[in-house]
Amino acid sequence: MKNVKEKRTLLHAKLTASNKKLEAANLGLDLVNVLNKAALVYETDLNGRIIFVNNQFSRLSGYSKKELIGSNVNFTNSKIHSDDFFFHLWKTIKAGNTWSGEICNHNKEGETYWIQITILPIFPENSEVNHYKYAAIGFDITERKKLESALQSRALLHKVEIETTDVFCRISNSGNFLDVSNGYCQLSGYSREELLAMNILNMKGSLSLGLQQFSQLVQENGKTFEIELYRKDYSKWLAEMTVSYSNLNDGSLFIFLHDITEKVEMQQRDKVLCEQIAHMQKMDDIGQMTSCIAHDFNNLLTIILGFTKLGIHFNQQNDTESAIPCLENVQVAANRAVDLVKKMLVFCREDIAQADKAINPAKIVEEVAGISDLLRAGISTEISLQLINMLNPESSSILIDPTALHQIMTNLIVNARDAVESSPHKSGLIMVSLFHDLVTNNDTFCSCCRKKLEGNFISIGISDTGTGIRIDQIEHIFDSFFTTKEVGKGTGLGLSVVSRIVHDAKGHIIVDSTRGVGTTFYLLFLPNWEKAHENEIALLANKKNENNTNLLNLNICVVDNNDDICALFSKELKLLGYAVETFNNSLVAWEKFQNNPNYFDVILTDYAMPYATGLDLAKSMLILRPELLIFICMGAKKLKRFDLPTGNIFLLEKPVFIADVDEMIRKNVN
Amino acid sequence: MANILVLDDDIQICNLIKMILTINRHQVRIAHDGIEGLKLYRQQKPDLVITDVMMPHKNGIQIVIELKKHDKETPIIVMSGGRRAITADFNLESVKLLGVHDTLKKPFTDEQLLDAIKTALPSPRVLAK
To answer: Do A86 and A101 meet the contact criterion of CB atoms below 8 Å apart?
Structure first.
């Protein structure tokens, strides 16, 4: 019986124990339930991959459990914490120790939330080494953090307000106002409550342009901008704005604003004053120019005064015969003065192209050589001014007023002289070069207007062995009033005028400068085709008479995306008696050809054209008509790179002259 | 009456001076550039040379230097209306250093011209020859 009793006692004890266990388990379960409600819980493997999360984590982060499990726990990081922060965290838990602290995370919407978290390594049963996972328990402390940071920021705002009169606010990374200074309220005309309910991106003003601009401001953290803002009553004020990340680790930004409305107004007044001064400087320029042509003026005055006096003298002696030539001389001199005044006006005219609407093409070689000769006198003998000409003096011309060309050349050569004179040697070389420039590579831009340049240009290069231009200054040299010369030695108007004249003449400028080596200004102008081919046209007109043969019933198809060239070739070919049709689009030409492949006898096409190149066009045409005679015009640089399809197909190097084309046609037809 | 050589690239100036001087009974020869002027000088030595400064080929300064090399006697009057950023005064000051007898600043009157000639020519006796 004793045994039975013992057994019972034992059983009871066991039962009690298991009951206790059950109670404990129940209690544990309750605890877990409470915990799940109050805290977020997750477990990760040793690499931080999430292997378990509770609902709370899922709720706070906005991600489903499915999304969370398997991903690395750091993907919710807000990037607010430094790398050191996480390094220290991992160092602690990897060593088997518990880490606790405050972490800011991003939820799925990109909003931040703060958790107070404890991470502990979990060890296998009966072991205190080799933990195999981490468990974390955290509490949502976002509200507390907000309060804290609001308090901090108020304190900071207060401090800043006391320290400066600047206007100041703090915004969240999505643009919502988190805090505003009294100054900001006053200036903006909104109350604090109104502002706190607003988003800076929705306010009228520069920032309302959008998030992109705003994020740019954020990226350029710490830099100062000038922006336009509007008050509640829509009046405008100008602010200097500095953006910086707050030190509150919540992604919020401090915006410091400094009211510069008055300053800007003052600057504008200054600017007006500057303009007036500039105008005076310009007048001074004109004054200088006037002294340049004072010689001519004084000559004319001498003539006018002298002959007038003589005329009066003869008149008093009733010698009308002698008096009249005197008066005529006065008239001639006066007319010369009128011309001189016109030239002066061109000099200071805003729009030089309009000064003389019917611009005659300038014979560029003659003009440039003339002006170089003239300027050589004004340059010290230490500096040699050389002219290198690769152009045909007769046929090379550009559409620019010669006076304007003189002015830009003078300006650039005087600049070159100054650059050489201020170089260490004080001596050197100025080289003026004239050449054809075929721009084909894709990275050639006008240094002034940034337009991409392509095609055939007549180029004037003005090179010096002077000091060179600093890279950071090159983009400014064409600005009005930009000058690196010492005070009184240049108005900073020269290059801005040069650029204006060049662009008025549809030209462009490329600046190539190396510090300590020298500078070259290339002026690129479109060649005046008509003029360039004037002689040829005359030649062709004569040739036509020699050549009234049956050859001339040929139909020629001219394809070039440049209308001027189309017109020119057409004119020249027609002079020779050919029938010509022109296309400025290779696809249109192809269309026409396809409709009646036998219509054209000769194709003269440019190579580089949009849609389809001359070669593509030729290949397609040869399929339909293998015996077709085709000429493709292209720049010398490209010539060698092509394998031509078999057939009557020829490459012509630009510039192409119709006389040569005519000859080739004769050789190859029949 | 004197034999006067006038150098100026401006035809009208030359004609004016020629007319003034002819009325005042001088003999006048005209050249429109420095080289032509020197040629005329060599053909017949004048009593007086009146030259402009800014001229093509050889400018007035070069003319003065060249003439002064061989002939320190013949008086020279230099006219100037100034040139590139240099005033007429400056031009004329510098030629005085070269031994020029008188200078004329353009625009000048006929009296100024005749006065200058009067002072430059050696003496009335020479004129009387």
So the answer is: no
Cis bond before residue B107 (omega within 30° of 0): yes
Domains and CATH numbers, chain B: 3-124 (3.40.50.2300)
Residues of chain A with confidence (pLDDT) below 70 = 1-5, 7-8, 11-12, 14-32, 34-35, 150-166, 202-225, 246-249, 270-295, 342-361, 377-378, 441-442, 479-494, 529-552, 635-642, 670
Q: Round to whole Å and give the CA distance between A492 and A486.
A: 11
Residue A132 and residue A194 in one domain: no
Are B109 and A326 within 8 A, CB to CB? no
Within its chain, how far is the Cα of A484 from the centroid?
24
Interface A:B, Cβ pairs < 8 A: 73
Q: Are both A368 and A504 inside the same structural domain?
A: yes
Dump pLDDT digits (tens) for A339-386: 777 666 655 544 444 444 445 667 788 888 877 777 776 677 778 888
| Chain B residues whose beta carbon lies within 8 Å of the beta carbon of residue A303 | 10, 12-13, 16
What pLDDT, on the 0 to 100 scale, is given for residue A355? 40
CA distances from B30 to A118, A454, A459, B41, B77 (A): 111, 55, 43, 10, 14
Residues A365, A463 within the same domain: yes
Q: Say yes or no for a CB contact (<8 Å) between A378 and B84.
A: yes
Among A95, A121, A140, the domain-final residue is A140
Alpha helix ranges (H) inside A505-585: 529-532, 534-546, 563-575
pLDDT at position B3 is: 93
Pairwise CB contact (< 8 Å): A298 & B15: no
Q: Are residues A162 and A136 in the same domain?
A: no
CB-based contact, A334 to chain B, within 8 Å:
no
Query: Total structural domains in chain A?
Result: 5
Provide ipTM, 2 decimals.
Answer: 0.74
Of B106, B3, B9, B125, residue with least CA distance to B58: B9
Shared domain for A520 and A437, answered yes or no, is yes
In a domain? residue A345: no
Q: Are strands A40-44 and A50-53 parallel, antiparallel or unpaired?
A: antiparallel
Quick one: A489 and A629 in the same domain? Answer: no
Whether residue A168 lies inside any domain: the answer is yes
* DSSP string over A286-336: HHHHHHHSHHHHHHHHHHHHHHHHHHHHHHHTT-HHHHHHHHHHHHHHHHH
Residues of chain B contacting residue A299, judged by C-beta atoms under 8 Å apart:
10, 12-13, 81, 106
Domain end position, chosen among A500, A528, A556: A528
Q: What is the pLDDT of residue A204?
A: 60
Phi and psi dihedrals of A471, rounded to 5? -55, -40
- Reduced to 3 states, what is the DSSP secondary structure of residue A251? coil
Structure tokens at A603: 């194709």
Please report, for the domain that includes residue A437, its CATH number. Answer: 3.30.565.10
Q: Are residues A70 and A208 in the same domain?
A: no
The residue range of the domain holding A87 is: 39-140
Do residues A364 and A487 both lie within one domain? yes
Q: Which of A292, A301, A332 sits opposite B107 (nearest CB)?
A: A301
